[in-house]
Amino acid sequence: MSQRIRFPNRNEFRTVLNNRVESYFRDNNLHKRDLWQMYMKTAIILTLGIVSYTILVFHTETLLAAVFWGFLLAQSHVLVGFCVMHDGGHRGYSSKTWVNTLMGLMLDLVGGNQRLWNIKHAMLHHTYTNIDALDEDLHSGGVLRLCPQQERRPWHRFQAWYALPSYSLLSIYWILFSDFKEHLSCRVGDYRIPKPTPVENLTFWGGKILYFSYALLLPLSLHPGAHVLIAFVGVQMILGFTLSIVFQLAHTVEGVAFPEPDSETGVIEEDWTIHQIQTTVDFARDNGFVNWYVGGLNFQVEHHLYSKICHIHYPEIAEIVKATCEEYKVPYLEYPTVTEAVRSHLRFLDRMGKASPA
């Protein structure tokens, strides 16, 4: 990207909102991080992963049992991604750097890479949300058209039909292809990333070896190869679909904006805070199970504004954000249920598939 994209200086809305959120924590004597609820949640998730893997690999003898424990293993990976490494990667899990690093490295434990995630997600996506030039979450290699600025291809007219099945391939694509490509080429799309340090190289290759050793090599020594491969692919498909759909519901639905920088200055029209609110959507805010399961990512507006605060606090912060938006006439987007958000996402895909190129 040759042109540097910039945001205007913060405005009154951002200052008032930040002051109100800070007052909430100060007045209620609350900690933003290091919450006992998060440590307990992490223990439950890791226990689920260890138990389901152990029973699946060492004690399962029937197809029904393999499906059951394989599904639970996939859910443990999903929960690690949503609830543990995500907060750690954003430095919202703890005030201690080593704790955040440890929790962030849980991504390497389930096959990903924390360094690449930090560049693509925490840095590019969270800074340049829904800006086609830099938000890697909008890029699907041409499989999907996810914003008006992207070229429309003939097959995109059917993307509302094939998008959901294609999401199940995301994790497999990351683990087997894109991580290696991006690490070795030092590029994420058109964005050049720093060359990995020796420690980052060791972490990348050590994490991959560890993951493939326990996910494939050990099971292959105990079970028929076809059974192991089917189980591996099945777990990855559940993981890929779940991760994809949650993030798509937050940014590629009806009503969100896809701002473009000024062609001469590279400046985005709105300041960063309003930009995040315009490009992000909450969903199922009143559903306690969804909130627990997705690690507060259904409060995506609040997560983008305050990613360094533990997701346990998002429901309360959301009330402050929404009230401040209403006061300053800033549109606040939300869908009351997961079902309505999914329908909106599919309608959005249908519109993007039929519309002429921007």
Can you describe what's shown?
With 358 residues, the protein is mainly alpha-helical. It has one domain. The chain contains 15 helices and 4 strands. A two-stranded antiparallel ribbon has the order 1-2. The longest helix has 27 residues. The chain starts with 11 loop residues before the first helix and ends with a helix. The mean pLDDT is 93.
In short:
This protein has helices at 12-27, 36-58, 63-89, 97-104, 106-109, 114-127, 159-167, 170-185, 198-220, 225-251, 272-278, 288-293, 300-305, 314-327, 338-354; strands at residues 187-188, 191-192, 282-283, 334-335. By secondary structure, the protein is mainly α.
Features:
mainly alpha, two-stranded antiparallel sheet, two-stranded parallel sheet, 15 helices
Terminal Cα span: 19 Å
Helix content: 55-70%
The low-confidence parts are none
Q: Write down the domain tally.
A: 1
Bin the strand percentage. Answer: under 5%
For the biggest sheet, the summary is: 2 strands, antiparallel
Total helical segments = 15
Structural class: mainly alpha
Strands of the widest sheet, in order across it, are 1-2
Average pLDDT confidence is 93
Total beta strands: 4
Q: Please give the radius of gyration in angstroms.
A: 21 Å
The coarse overall form would be: globular
Helix and strand pattern: HHHHHHHHEEHHHEHHHEH
